[in-house]
Amino acid sequence: MVKKILKKSGFILLILLVLFGIARIMDKSLGGIYDGLRAPYLQLPTANSMVIRWQTKDRNVGVVRIGEVAGKLTKEISELSADDEHRVQLTGLKANTRYYYSVGTQDYALFKGSKYWFKTSPDTSPDIGTDNTSVQAVRFWVTGDQGAAGDIQNGVRDAMLSWTKQQPLVGKTTPDFWLTLGDNAYRSGSNKQFQTNFFTPYAPILKHTPVWPAYGNHDARRWAFFNIFDLPTQAEAGGLGSSTEKYYSFDYGRLHVVMLDSQSSRIQKNSKMLRWLKKDLAQTKQQWLVVAFHHPPYTKGSHNSDSLTDSFGRMRNVRKYVLPILENAGVDVVLAGHSHMYERSWFMNCHYGFSKTFSRQFIQDRAPQADIDSGETRQQQNNLVYRKAATDLSAYSGTIYVTLGSSAKLDNGDLNHPALPISLAASGSMIFDIVGNKLTVNFINELGQVVDSFSIEKGAVDAPVAREQCQ
């Protein structure tokens, strides 16, 4: 009798497991499908090319028309076959030039008007000079964990749009491009969730601002991320080809940007991604270096970078294996998300251990001197200019680390990491401005207020001497 009950129970359990598996597959499949309208967005920007993507409810042959004057779109590019997911690559464009465009079919334009435009990237040659008059000014936007529709997301987005209009950079009232730090669509990165949490709320920006995304843990729960985004694998936008869309690099003027995968790629000494990283950084000739990924090396926000179990130890691995490579290459700013706060470091280097091992010896430039043990002086690190002697990339000359995971979510945390004098339970986003030898960063909250700001100046005559190496 007992055997029959156990056998029957086992059979019922097996059926339940099978049904659960089928339901899970259906959930993933249905969640990965979005068959509605998707407004155009810009991918893979270079000095001479741009990719425009959009989606329609019905299959048709997509047509893009472009021109340098709004209302006079003289060039037409058609897809080769009908589809509902459209992709047109524009080539032979002029560098640093604004083009207006429309998308649709041979018979009608689905999206058109003066608000549909893009600007090609400037010349990326390292020989264009380093003085303020000969270098194209660069402005870009950074968000972290922004893929959750709601009041915070709307406020952060609108605050950036308002602030950039009020504070133009050499005539720029919109960013040249947009970096995301991962978790682009909560909760699971499905195609439907991307539409709800990314494409719909950011449509006014995506129509004219190319986006470069990092891969986050919530993006990795489905496969839509790599279907949605066109990312370089063979150095299409500069840098060194990685042969994968998970991590990549690109150039914009005198800026080199590296986007790493802290979620799914192995992060260990001599792992494939880190071998590529070393080669990419060794070959760049650009003046400025910004590196971004999802898991922060330093945080005491909604995650704890000291924990070896939090996020499967990825934060510790980034700190131990990635940071030495970046600092040896002279990285200027390192960006991460994941922890739903805003935290910003001292101008520092060579700290690869736990938070309790941090001390003033790791600070490269205090600008001005401040006692790191005094809570009252922590806010003195706001709105400072940090100095580097070299005008190009120089090893161990100082790096700012930023954890920004509050562009749509805001959680709780201790916010007491000693390497992070600016630690705020505040939502917001960042605007980077680069003009010649100076990089300036403003963290703008959802009310449009600048609550943290810092600059890095290269070629400063009074800059501290860079370390020869980390001990």
Rg estimate, integer Å? 23 Å
Distance between the termini: 71 Å
User: What's the β-strand tally?
Assistant: 24
Average predicted confidence as pLDDT:
92
GO molecular function: acid phosphatase activity; metal ion binding
Domain Calcineurin-like phosphoesterase: 139-342
Protein name: Purple acid phosphatase
Pfam families: Metallophos, Pur_ac_phosph_N
Kindly summarize this structure in a few lines.
The protein has helices at residues 2-31, 151-166, 191-206, 224-228, 272-283, 314-328, and strands at residues 38-43, 50-60, 63-67, 75-78, 83-90, 98-104, 109-111, 117-119, 138-143, 177-180, 211-213, 248-252, 255-259, 288-292, 333-336, 342-344, 347-348, 363-365, 384-388, 400-404, 422-424, 428-435, 438-445, 450-458. By secondary structure, it is an alpha+beta fold. The longest helix is centred in the first third of the chain and has 30 residues, at 2-31.
Fold and architecture overview:
The chain has 471 residues and is α+β, with helices and mostly antiparallel strands. The chain has two domains: 82 residues, Immunoglobulins (Immunoglobulin-like), CATH 2.60.40.10; 321 residues, Purple Acid Phosphatase, chain A, domain 2 (4-Layer Sandwich). It is 20% helix and 27% strand. Strand 23 and strand 24 form a beta hairpin. Helix 5 runs parallel beside helix 6. The radius of gyration is 23 Å and the shape is globular. The N and C termini lie far apart (71 Å). This is Purple acid phosphatase. InterPro entries: Calcineurin-like_PHP, FN3_dom, Metallo-depent_PP-like, PAPs-like, PAPs_N, Purple_acid_Pase-like_N. Pfam families: Metallophos, Pur_ac_phosph_N.
